[in-house]
Specification:
100 residues, five-stranded antiparallel beta sheet, alpha+beta
């Protein structure tokens, strides 16, 4: 990966209130929002226009550390992987970027 950023979704995140009470998991859209933020931190000039490929492979619980890894795979494309501490792959996919 060209860049890797570690983070945690806090237990009091607003999206968790109704997402499986008493057994919360982080919604996929929250995970993808962290992917877009990691992209913005890595390449502030890049603008995501879509995610043509996304695969969720395992759940993420609040307070579990995870990383977002990004690698440029060609013009206008970035591949991402979200990996839980310990090495389990949570999600992977591709981001389409606005042409420069």
């Amino acid at each position: 990966m060209n860049t890797e950023k570690w983070m945690v979704i806090p237990a009091d995140h607003p999206s968790l209130a109704g997402h499986f009470p008493d057994n919360p998991i982080v919604p996929g859209v929250v995970l993808l929002d962290e992917v877009i933020q990691a992209l913005s931190d890595w390449r502030p000039d890049a603008q995501a226009v879509g995610m043509p490929v996304v695969k969720f492979l395992a759940p993420l619980r609040p307070e579990q550390p995870f990383s977002v890894g990004l690698v440029e795979t060609g013009p206008g494309r970035v591949r991402f992987e979200c990996i839980r501490e310990g090495g389990q792959l949570l999600a992977r996919g591709q981001i389409a970027l606005r042409p420069e």
